[in-house]
Amino acid sequence: MDTDADSPLTKIRNIGIMAHIDAGKTTTTERILFYTGYLHKMGEVHDGNTFTDWMEQERERGITITSATVTCYWNTYQINIIDTPGHVDFTAEVERSLRVLDGAIGIFCAVGGVEPQSETVWNQANRYRVPRLAYINKMDRVGADYFHTIQMIRERLTLNAYPVNMPMGREENFEGVIDLITMQAYYFDPLTFGYEVKQTTIPEKYLESAKSMRDELLEKVSEFSDELLMLFLEGEEIPVSVLKEAIRKGTISSQFVPVFCGSSLKNKGIQLLLDGICDFLPSPLDIGDTQGFEPVTHNPVNISPDPKGPLVALAFKVQIDKYIGRLVYIRVYSGTLKKGGSFVNQTNGKKERVSRILQMMSNRKNDLDCLHAGDIGAIVGSRFLITGDTITDGNFEVLLSKMHFPDTVISMA
Ligand code: GDP
């Protein structure tokens, strides 16, 4: 198995976004795609476009999220956002998306808190032990209460939720966010849609509460790091890297849920959430082996996230694109699927060819030559794959799922 710390797999985050209807999932996802799209563009071409030009182009094009997975880049990380329905009626669909993601963000409204519907989805995520971050949105709304919402998350969802961000003010006085890890205050410039960030020391009036919240955080996460515990007990300064590592360990082991805050509508707080996704949610390597089973005996089979291993992938969604035709979204668990190559459907023994592999971004589709273990993409060329099918190179007898959803073929706009 590829355990190299420099493996590109360490830079992949496969995440879902779970939310009660109206909590702000669409707005938050759009803002994430907006910021990451801008950053990616700047990194790839220095065409001198100003932020305003970019915003105009994006507005004209409209950021659309119609695909089952959308990929974006934040700094050196690749984030695959898997569409995760938040409605009770789609329990089977939720289970299916939980199967392919490695971590999730739960979005809560700072006014409504934990709605009964979120309990169902979060309990499903508890069953799968999905590592999660919580993002408390709408801090600008009348009645917003960050601490009450955190309390509700702790009590109703029985999660160890602790703030890593603290809001500066609330309702119409919500001015920005304090990062309790670095103890810096962040203000997001409304003229650049919150893209430009002013980072300063914490204003005096928030300092005391920020310090006591940080202490609470340190005490809690010292459970996950002996080094932090020692430093904390001795009253020593705690390096940011040590604190981040402790939070990461607690989050990945599903024993801890870091809480972020913001207002997606007012473009505040999302950049810190994006950093949190990269810093605290697991990579496919952190998740490690996936369990499949042998088709005849049903004996368990361990599948390692090794790009050089035998090909094993799961088809988790079929969509019809009006220009391209049938797109099958897959997650590769082991090996590498190549464009032009063939695969065997383990469910019915059918052999098919992959004519294209696509990575769906918010405003374009990238053609890829191959898809490695740990990654998610859409393949073109299959006529028979349906949701729940396992594909291999034909030399490895394994199934990843007992679930089949032949009726989930939907058309894309
Ligand atoms: P979804 O149903 O979870 O996808 O929620 P949407 O993103 O569609 O948001 C629902 C409503 O809440 C819309 O009218 C949004 O404009 C509004 N909204 C989203 N985020 C915020 C926020 O941070 N503050 C305020 N005041 N409204 C928000």
Automatic annotation (TrEMBL):
Its main location: cytoplasm. Keywords: Cytoplasm, Elongation factor, GTP-binding, Nucleotide-binding, Protein biosynthesis. GO terms for molecular function: GTP binding; GTPase activity; translation elongation factor activity. Belongs to the TRAFAC class translation factor GTPase superfamily. Classic translation factor GTPase family. EF-G/EF-2 subfamily. This is Elongation factor G. GO terms for cellular component: cytoplasm. Catalyzes the GTP-dependent ribosomal translocation step during translation elongation. During this step, the ribosome changes from the pre-translocational (PRE) to the post-translocational (POST) state as the newly formed A-site-bound peptidyl-tRNA and P-site-bound deacylated tRNA move to the P and E sites, respectively. Catalyzes the coordinated movement of the two tRNA molecules, the mRNA and conformational changes in the ribosome. The chain holds residues 1 to 413 of 703 of the full protein. GTP binds at residues 19-26, 83-87, 137-140. It is found in: Cytoplasm. Residues 10-285 form the Tr-type G domain. GO terms for biological process: ribosome disassembly. It comes from the Bacteria. It comes from Cloacimonas acidaminovorans (strain Evry).
